[in-house]
Amino acid sequence: MNPIYLDYNGTTPIHPQIRQMMAESLLSQQKENEFISNCFGNPSSSHVYGVEAKQSLNLARKQTASLIDCQPSEIVFTSGGTESNNMAIQGVVIQAYVNGNHQPHIVTSSFEHPAVENVLRVCKQLYNARVTVLNVDNFGFINLQDLSESLTKDTCLVTIMLANNEIGTVNPQADTCIQYIQHSIQFQQREQNEHQIAHGCVISQWKDTSNN
Ligand SMILES: Cc1ncc(COP(=O)(O)O)c(C=O)c1O
Description:
Elements: H1 16-27, H2 48-68, H3 81-98, E1 105-109, H4 114-127, E2 130-134, H5 144-150, E3 155-161, H6 174-191, E4 200-204
Parallel strand pairs: 1-2, 1-3, 3-4
Helix pairs in contact: 3-4
The chain binds pyridoxal-5'-phosphate.
Residues 10, 80-82, 113, 115, 161, 165, 204-205 line the site of pyridoxal-5'-phosphate.
Domain Aminotransferase class V: 4-175
Protein name: Water dikinase
Cofactor: pyridoxal 5'-phosphate
């Protein structure tokens, strides 16, 4: 009997078109030039191997940016979720710290993946961060009122999971949540402009739900 795969929250098969693009890029980039048979160069190098790899990367960056309507320069490729969470969360907290917020405040939920929980622990140790953990209801949703009450003038980051990796909850309030957080933080910055607060909003596994 064939096993049935039910872990699409964890990972999904690669789309056939993506698989084909990757294979073409790795195996037969420049057929007319036997010398360069695959795309393995360091894209930061100026030799022909590097230039070829950089061109492939730039194309992928442009295509990815057009999918989510942002600038290609805003796309950073990482190895996966853990690295992305580290980069995004520490990036915001370091910026807040360097800008004079010496006890950066972060709001998160009790529902987060260890890849988020662990980096928040590091932020407490390294950057003196204070972390507020919001409880979720039986379905895994945070309460917007709790979120509102948790924000302070030192809040530099709200990091709430969009799609839960264990029970599959997809937070339908993501759009509202993002707008709400941005307004709240901007409002507080206007009202209490003691620090130049870096602010950011990380919604893990962000996807645009506006057309659904
Ligand atoms: C919600 C969530 N965040 C982070 C991770 C970690 O991702 P990675 O294994 O790519 O580092 C996972 C992995 O399952 C996840 O489900």
